[in-house]
């Protein structure tokens, strides 16, 4: 199974096409938009079957919107990572393991377009043409390396993973915002971002097509006082932006009128440890623990031909090193990792070496 979305064109991340290939049935392309999202017969037909997807985390949320949830999952991208392949794009794995070269060219297209051109449909169908064969080859490779049980744990974790939650203060991800540290200017970026987001959501247009990030930052820095000054700025001179100038100026004026108590903090508040590059100043002991943990985990990953980020989530490593458990024995570390979502195979490979990294060095 695969999906095609319209990222970069539409606000929503809905599936605009669902591709399926099943032994005995061939390849089917389903247009959920034309069906109004009512695909109950498909939901029933797929119930209880194993789904084969490539990079499943990208597709599962939009499939769930359609009521499609797998009973069993095999993720060929994740399988490729665990098998130690450095390049795990679908086309790369198909060419290396099966000897076929997939057609490229429409992955970033506007899949909300109707009617879809025939060559786009062919491209979409090819994405599932060989997924089952690729799955079988990867399964055999994982068995050969003794990693199949690891992969099955990872697939199940991906299948059961909660849907992504909305980001806290998503406006802080505006490209170029690192140039701004003044709270009043940050408030202007926030106000413009929120106005743009509301328009994009209402029109189902990608926010960057309503107004690019660079224009938000430029307007926040320059702080134009009236429509004429704002309309003279790059991007805002365009016909579409001139029609919306009142919306953008209103956002800037709301930000300018905020009391100091309502201005955003210069940097986002985190519920976890600070950035690792500040640890040496804030907590040298924690920095030493992290350095030791990273060295040990890299050695384990290399010994098992794994990407270190798949061996153990970097965020979990940082949190554990910043605030280690009271019991830093292998058993205590294993309990901490399990509570943080680590799988059994990860804990088996890492609890001992992390225990050593977290154990304070004896005083001279």
Automatic annotation (TrEMBL):
InterPro entries: 3'-5'_exonuclease_dom (IPR002562), Exo_C (IPR041605), HRDC-like_sf (IPR010997), HRDC_dom (IPR002121), HRDC_dom_sf (IPR044876), RNase_D-like (IPR051086), RNaseH-like_sf (IPR012337), RNaseH_sf (IPR036397)
Pfam families: DNA_pol_A_exo1, DNA_pol_A_exoN, HRDC
Gene Ontology terms describing biological process: nucleobase-containing compound metabolic process
Keyword list, A-Z: Hydrolase
Xref: Gene3D superfamilies: HRDC domain, Ribonuclease H-like superfamily/Ribonuclease H
Region (Disordered) residue spans: 259-283
Residue stretches making up the HRDC domain: 182-262
Organism superkingdom: Bacteria
EC id: 3.1.13.5
GO molecular function, one term: ribonuclease D activity
Cross-referenced PANTHER family: RIBONUCLEASE D
Protein name in UniProt: Ribonuclease D
């Amino acid at each position: 199974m695969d999906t095609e979305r319209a990222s970069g064109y539409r606000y929503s991340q809905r599936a605009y096409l669902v591709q399926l290939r099943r032994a005995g049935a061939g390849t089917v392309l389903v247009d959920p938009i034309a069906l109004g999202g009512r695909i109950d017969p498909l939901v029933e037909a797929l119930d209880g079957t194993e789904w084969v997807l490539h990079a499943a985390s990208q597709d599962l949320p939009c499939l769930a919107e359609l009521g499609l949830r797998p009973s069993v999952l095999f993720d060929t991208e994740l399988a490729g990572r665990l098998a130690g392949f450095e390049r795990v794009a679908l086309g790369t794995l198909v060419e290396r393991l099966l000897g076929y070269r997939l057609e490229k060219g429409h992955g970033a297209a506007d899949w909300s377009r109707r009617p879809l051109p025939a060559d786009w449909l062919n491209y979409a169908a090819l994405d599932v043409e060989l997924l089952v064969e690729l799955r079988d080859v990867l399964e055999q490779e994982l068995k050969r390396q003794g990693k199949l049980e690891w992969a099955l744990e990872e697939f199940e974790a991906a299948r059961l993973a909660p849907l992504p939650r909305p980001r806290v203060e998503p406006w802080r991800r505006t490209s170029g915002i690192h140039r701004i540290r003044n709270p009043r200017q940050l408030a202007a970026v926030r106000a413009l971002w929120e106005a743009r987001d509301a328009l994009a959501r209402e029109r189902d247009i990608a926010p960057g097509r309503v107004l690019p990030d660079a224009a938000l930052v430029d307007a926040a820095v320059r702080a134009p006082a009236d429509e004429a000054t704002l309309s003279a700025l790059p991007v805002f001179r365009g016909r579409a932006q001139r029609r919306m100038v009142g919306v953008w100026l209103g956002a800037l004026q709301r930000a300018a009128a905020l009391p100091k108590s309502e201005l955003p903090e210069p940097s986002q508040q985190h519920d976890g440890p600070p950035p690792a590059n500040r640890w040496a100043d804030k907590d040298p002991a924690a920095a030493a623990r992290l350095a030791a943990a990273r060295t040990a985990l890299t050695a384990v990953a290399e010994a098992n031909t794994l990407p270190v980020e798949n061996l153990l989530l970097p965020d979990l490593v940082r949190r554990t090193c910043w605030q280690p458990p009271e019991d830093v024995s292998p058993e205590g570390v294993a309990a901490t990792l399990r509570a943080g979502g680590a799988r059994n195979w990860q804990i088996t490979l890492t609890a001992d070496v992390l225990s050593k990294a977290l154990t304070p060095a004896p005083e001279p």
